[in-house]
Amino acid sequence: TFIKTAAWARDHVNEGQFAYALSVAVIQRDDTTGVVLPPLYEVYPHLYFHGSDIAEFQSAKMQGHTHYVAMTNWTGASDVLHPEDLLGYFTQDVGLNAYHAYAHLYQPFWLNSEKYGLNTYVNRGEAFYYFYQQILAHYNLHRLANYLPEMNDFDWNMPIEYGYNPDLKYHNGQAFPARPDNAELSSLKSYTVEDVKTIEKRIKDAIDSGYVIGKDGNVISIKNYIHGINIIGNIVEGNEDSVNSRYYGSYTTMLHNLLALIMDPATEHGVAPGVVGHYETALRDPAFYYLQKHINGIFKQYKDQLPSYRGDDLFFSGVAVK
């Protein structure tokens, strides 16, 4: 049974892998509907609270405290060392980061909707675009509210101008690496920067041509906006519903990993991945939004290719607003 399998896995499988697999299974299975999972920030507090706060809690426990409160102000005068820090109340919000992680538990990139019979994934690619467009719009709103200029456009030939120090630690005590201003993207052991640029060009060329190439080399039209945006979304995310993951790759993940491993791209010094490498922590880094703006630009390119709305598209016969 499911519960017996889960009980066995709890004792024999890596704890992080177990927690992730159990969460996805409980969310996706019909027979676990109504089962309430503990909040992610209680399962992985080290991913949602500053390492200095965790250390303070541990110290209080060692001193015998059974009730201890620590105040955190992410936008206090002593915490704002860079203009981007003014948005700490948004980017470091526990609920927002948990929401981002939950979204990927409900729709894991590796889950094939046809194989598992998931009818809720019909507009999966479009939902991917909509989800990140809303987060990016919310982020930009807070930039304006704090009198910060619009982020510059991503340029492959320019360094990442936004540095970041997360003050987070992995469960084993290793710190998430800080990144200085103007760090440069470098090739990884598994793929190069040119590989990602090539995939990006393939996607953009497909948008300009009006069709994508399927797994069997067949041509699939994306000129119909209802189906086209979904096809493009699946390709950009690189999920299991992509029409040709071998050709179009895992664009978003590959781009994010270039940033996550920027401090040790060749993994020669044992530096852990940065926050962008994890759904639970990615939204903390200002450079995440810098990359996401670039990714969303692909969808804008697609939308710019679509014809203008006609009256029939916007008119709902028999509907009146009174």
UniProtKB/TrEMBL annotation:
<protein>
    <submittedName>
        <fullName>Allergen Cr-PI</fullName>
    </submittedName>
</protein>
<dbReference type="Pfam" id="PF00372">
    <property type="entry name" value="Hemocyanin_M"/>
</dbReference>
<dbReference type="InterPro" id="IPR005204">
    <property type="entry name" value="Hemocyanin_N"/>
</dbReference>
<dbReference type="GO" id="GO:0005344">
    <property type="term" value="F:oxygen carrier activity"/>
</dbReference>
<dbReference type="InterPro" id="IPR008922">
    <property type="entry name" value="Di-copper_centre_dom_sf"/>
</dbReference>
<dbReference type="InterPro" id="IPR013788">
    <property type="entry name" value="Hemocyanin/hexamerin"/>
</dbReference>
<comment type="function">
    <text>Hemocyanins are copper-containing oxygen carriers occurring freely dissolved in the hemolymph of many mollusks and arthropods.</text>
</comment>
<keyword id="KW-0186">Copper</keyword>
<dbReference type="InterPro" id="IPR000896">
    <property type="entry name" value="Hemocyanin/hexamerin_mid_dom"/>
</dbReference>
<feature type="domain" description="Hemocyanin N-terminal">
    <location>
        <begin position="1"/>
        <end position="33"/>
    </location>
</feature>
<dbReference type="GO" id="GO:0005576">
    <property type="term" value="C:extracellular region"/>
</dbReference>
<keyword id="KW-0561">Oxygen transport</keyword>
<keyword id="KW-0813">Transport</keyword>
<dbReference type="Pfam" id="PF03722">
    <property type="entry name" value="Hemocyanin_N"/>
</dbReference>
<dbReference type="InterPro" id="IPR036697">
    <property type="entry name" value="Hemocyanin_N_sf"/>
</dbReference>
<feature type="domain" description="Hemocyanin middle">
    <location>
        <begin position="39"/>
        <end position="299"/>
    </location>
</feature>
